[in-house]
Structures are given as C-alpha cells and as structure tokens.
Amino acid sequence: AGRDGQPAQCLLLFDKRDSGLQRFFIQQRYPTGGEVREIYRLLRTRLSPREISGRVPELSDEKVNVALTVLQDEGYIERQAQRTQNAQTVQLRTDKSPQDLRLDFTFHKRRQQADYRRLGEMLDYLTTTACRRAVILRYFGERVPVGKNCGQCDLCTQDTTSSQTLP
Asked: Which H or E run includes 92?
C-alpha cells in the first residue's frame, strides 16, 4: 500500500495488554534446560514427540519442537519425518542420562532476544509521539533527520503547523 505513490490507509488495533501476551508467547516458545532434559527422558521411554506435548500440558508443540532441535543439533537424537502421517519419529543416538546432556542454548537465546527486540521495536512504533513514517524508515536503515515529519501519518496530521515533508 502506498508504494505506487498514491495515498494509502492502515488501521492498527492495539491494546497495551497485548504486549504482555506477546511476551508470554515468546517465553512459551523456548524451553529451559530442565524442559529439554525432561523431553529427552520422555523420548527414552519411547514416547513420540506428538505424545509428549499431550502428556505434559506445559510443553507446547512449539516448545517440544525447539527442544528436539536442540537435542538434534547436539547429536543426541535424529529426527525422521513420516510421510504418511505428517508426523516424525525420533531415534536416540546416545544412551546418556538426561542429567549428563551438555546443551548449548546460544542460538536459541539469540533468537529469543531477537524476538523480544522486535516486540520492543513494535511497541516503540505504537507508542511513539514522533512521525510514524520516520520510525519505519529508521527501522529499515534509512537516515531520517530528527524533527522531519511526513505530514501524512496520524501523528503528523494532529499538528499540521509544524509538519515538514520527508524527502
């Protein structure tokens, strides 16, 4: 919208409580070391990945999937897709106990931090008192002089006496 040079409108619905919900979703996406070890323990009892999230309610399908990725990346398991049932099987590649697993969460912690950063950037956009177009342009790496206004977003049109058009 708006890329053809014609005016465009966007309606964004936001409630401050939404940010808490989004933080909750980010927390639920990434398992702790204890949760990964518990999933590994359940795999050792021959539970399938699909059965694990059903057996342990606090382990969402997404959290189980991230844990399986951690275990596979560390070489403790191998996942194989089953074509007929849109499921996967897991083969253990070690007989280590869950307590003996060495787990590296570096990549997943970076992803979680990136999720939180993106949420913060969205909240900054929603709560800014400056030109929204300038915020978007800066997000994508463009240099926009401070105080320059587009004269068209909801914030710039509130006070048209101080609006300046962005180049």
From this structure: strand 87-92
